[in-house]
Design brief:
The structure holds two protein chains of two kinds. Chain A is of the alpha/beta class. Chain A contains six helices and 19 strands. Bound molecules: adenosine-5'-diphosphate and magnesium ion. Adenosine-5'-diphosphate binds next to helix 1 of chain B.
Chain lengths: 355, 249
């Protein structure tokens, strides 16, 4: 989906874009980002991470590193879209794959990415999208299909920039979709994740952290549809806001008439570090079945003064004390990250942001 | 070490401390006793520059410096440590990370290089076992799920690690059984030194059986009503604070 298509959508579905006025935000964006801070840093660690490098939206097979991942894992091109297909019983968990999206001075003003991921029966995939700082407007449309009992652990780091993402995820019976997204800014960023739990006992866990400051605007919008009985979904989102940043969380859980024994949980918490920052949270439940367990909540708070005093009385300056309390605030969500190596990456990103 | 002169302080415009004079020489342990609500915690917060607690008159000199001109972390760096009456819980941050961050912040202020993970671990293990805290408590989130006694021991552990020159202990004995009290007192006594002063705030005389003070002061209604030696604590134990309440009224 191109930028133009996103704009058309935002005009058509005004209620869904109530807190993110896309056209106004795009018109007011004039920030440029330092492109020279990113992936290489991880690369130096001497670890054996497999990664697929995309430069200006074009996959660079020769500059990618495959490890034990077969190089035919990815097909397609920027124009027609990329496909990642995993056959039945194929397991790529031992070697998590990283997709690194980088832009340079030759990048066009806009890049529209299309990605489709199909995981066969009992297949297992672990994939991290790493979107480096960019001055290009990136749109990314991702279609994900999990066949029965397939499992997909899907991570995402967005450094900064204008980024519009739409995920359509379909999970067959016994399948499990796990998403963790770290948004470190946005001018604006919109991360939309739609999950349909199509088969019995399908599960989804969506977790995310948004770290926003200055004039950042980031929006996480999730829609989970329980379409079959005995499905479960869990969502925990944490947002830290400083400066004049604005955060949006919209989460909707729909339970179809026959989806009995559905179990849905959704929580959004925000930490406001400045009184000029703003958080809009809109949880929604739409339940058409009668035997379900669904709950949601949202909370917005400030830094705990007692904790700040405690830490400063131990010698931490305000910045250090705040960084530790931010770490404390997001810790619950980080615990839900399934890949230990990612947890370290996320922790480092968060620590850097908080300094 | 510490000289407090005619200190007046208020909370939200209400005067709580009404002219405190107190001087603690280096190496000495002074106790402050007093009824609930007399201003003991207020004094400890004033010495640590807690927001909402305002000095309206008087002066505090610490190691020759004007303490009141420093903010909370600058006072910590200068060597003031307050073991809090109500230690704060910080979920999701391990005690180890907290202690390491604090230690390296204090070390940096002293011009010392930071300790690395291994050095810190070694130091913390040693100090923790001396105060009877298991290694497991170092890994757990700061004060989360700690019993009252464990929280107080954790305060003493921080004190032992940061090596301050003025230790203020605010009701460190409250909520402790006799065994925990002895462990805490041992920990405190181990830190006594000619270069270190202590201000031990307590409601009960019991703690002072284990931490022998050089002087005892009675704080009631915002003022020090009486000062004396260790024997004053015993007298208070027998008579209670009624005399001072009458005196103030
Ligand atoms: N945050 C506060 N706001 C208003 N009054 C307070 C506050 N904290 C303490 N006080 C009052 O200040 C007085 C002294 O309290 P405190 O210093 O805690 O006494 P102590 O520690 O001796 O029990 C009490 O009358 C108490 O009610
Ligand atoms: Mg008190």
């Amino acid at each position: 989906m191109t930028l133009a298509a996103f704009i058309t959508r935002s005009r058509r579905e005004q209620e869904d874009w109530k807190y993110t006025d896309l056209e106004a935000l795009l018109a007011s964006t004039n920030k440029t980002f330092n492109l020279d801070t990113g992936f290489r840093r991880y690369d130096e660690d001497g670890d054996n991470r497999a990664y697929l490098l995309f430069l200006n939206g074009v996959w660079q097979s020769a500059r990618s590193r495959f490890g034990s991942v077969p190089s035919c894992i990815l097909m397609g091109d920027l124009e027609s879209g990329y496909q990642l297909t995993l056959g039945e019983q194929t397991c790529l968990v031992a070697q998590p794959i990283e997709m690194v999206f980088e832009t340079d001075s030759n990048a066009p003003a806009e890049i529209a990415l299309k990605l489709s991921i199909d995981i066969g029966k009992n297949g297992r995939l672990t994939l991290l999208e790493n979107h480096l700082p960019s001055n290009t407007i990136t749109t990314i449309e991702t279609d994900i299909t999990l066949q029965s009992r397939a499992k997909f652990v899907h991570g995402k780091i967005l450094a900064s920039g204008t980024h519009l993402a739409l995920h359509e995820v379909r999970v067959a019976s016994g399948g499990y979709y796990n998403n963790f997204s770290l948004l470190r800014g946005g001018h604006p960023a919109r991360n939309e994740i739609n999950v349909t739990l199509e088969g019995e006992e399908a599960q989804a866990a969506l977790n995310g952290i948004m770290l926003l400051r200055g004039s950042d605007h980031a929006d996480t919008t999730t829609r989970i549809t329980h379409q079959a009985p005995n499905c479960a979904s869990r969502q925990v989102y944490k947002t830290v806001l400083d400066g004049k940043a604005r955060g949006v969380f919209q989460g909707k859980i729909t339970v179809a008439p026959h989806a009995q024994k559905s179990d849905g949980y959704q929580m959004s918490r925000a930490l406001l570090l400045s009184d000029q920052a703003e958080m809009d949270a809109r949880p929604e439940l739409e339940i058409y079945a009668d035997d379900v367990k669904c709950s949601h909540g949202s909370a917005i708070g400030a830094l705990d003064e007692d904790a700040m005093f405690y830490l400063r009385a131990r010698g931490l300056n305000e910045t250090q004390a705040r960084a530790l309390l931010i770490e404390s605030f997001v810790a619950e969500t980080l615990d839900n990250v399934q890949v230990e190596a990612w947890r370290d990456i996320f922790r480092r990103e968060i620590g850097e942001w908080a300094q | 070490m510490l000289t407090i002169k005619n200190l007046h302080a208020s909370i939200g415009g209400k005067e709580i401390l009404k002219g405190i004079d107190l001087s603690i020489p280096a190496g000495q342990v002074h106790a402050i006793m007093g009824p609930n609500g007399s201003g003991k915690s207020t004094l400890s917060y004033i010495l640590s520059d807690r927001a909402g607690y305002d000095v309206t008159e008087g002066s505090v000199t610490f190691k020759g410096r004007d303490l009141l001109s420093l903010n909370t972390e600058e006072r910590a760096a200068a060597g003031v440590f307050l073991a809090m009456q109500y230690p704060v819980e910080i979920p999701g941050v391990s005690n180890m990370v907290f202690l390491k961050t604090a230690l390296n912040a204090i070390r940096a202020s002293r011009g010392q290089s930071p300790l690395d993970a291994m050095q810190t671990l070694k130091l913390l293990r040693g100090k923790a076992s001396a105060i009877g805290l298991s290694e497991d408590m170092l890994k757990r989130a700061v004060n989360v799920g700690f019993s009252g006694g464990e929280k107080k021991r954790n305060e003493i552990l921080q004190m032992a690690v940061l090596e301050p020159s003025l230790c203020i202990l605010d009701e460190t004995d409250s909520g402790l059984d006799i065994d925990a009290l002895k462990i805490v007192a041992d920990g405190v006594n181990a830190l006594r030194s000619p270069e270190r002063s202590m201000l031990v705030i307590t409601h009960y005389q019991r703690l002072l059986d284990y931490i022998k003070p050089d002087a005892v002061h009675v704080l009631a209604y915002g003022k020090i009503r009486r000062s004396g030696g260790a024997e004053l604590a015993h007298e208070l134990e027998e008579k209670g604070y009624t005399d001072f309440v009458n005196e103030a009224a």
